[in-house]
Amino acid sequence: QVQLVESGGGLVQAGGSLRLSCAASGSIFSIKVMGWYRQAAGKQRELVASITRDGFRYYADAAKGRFTISRDNAKNTVYLQMNSLKPEDTAVYYCAALLYGSDKWDFWGQGTQVTVSS
Questions:
Q1: How far is Cα of residue 110 from the mean position of the Cα atoms in its chain?
Q2: pLDDT for 26-58, tens place per residue?
């Protein structure tokens, strides 16, 4: 089992920045990939960025150039630095973990709200 706890959401003006954190606990050595998803009201959940244990990063087009995903293995924490935020970035952001040997996201955090005002 893996537990994920997000923090760092909030209200920010357009053009501002936020850093989300996701602290993992439990069977952390079974985690192959950590990711950040978001779900805006009335829309499907979408992958924003992900990072493997080896540090390989993926970014959705909407995140490229503005968001940076990183991980601190010593702290078992993954971060999402979000710069130049836009109102369309408003969503609930979820942390997710994919385990070795799995082909789907296995564990999810409870989500943290990010609201960007215009």
A1: 12
A2: 999 999 999 999 999 999 999 999 999 999 999
Radius of gyration of the chain (CA): 13
Name the band, by pLDDT with cuts 50, 70 and 90, for residue 8: very high
Alpha-carbon distance of 118 to 110, in angstroms, equals 26
Closest CA to 55 of 24, 25, 32: 32
Phi, psi angle pair for 30, to nearest 5°? -90, -5
Interior angle at CA 65, CA 61 and CA 67, nearest 5: 85
CA 99 centroid distance within chain:
16
Separation in Å, CA 7 to CA 77, 93, 100, 103: 11, 10, 25, 26
Which amino acid, one-letter code, is at 81?
Q
Give the phi and the psi of residue 83 in degrees, each rounded to 5: -115, 165
Number of CB atoms found within 10 A of residue 34's CB: 28
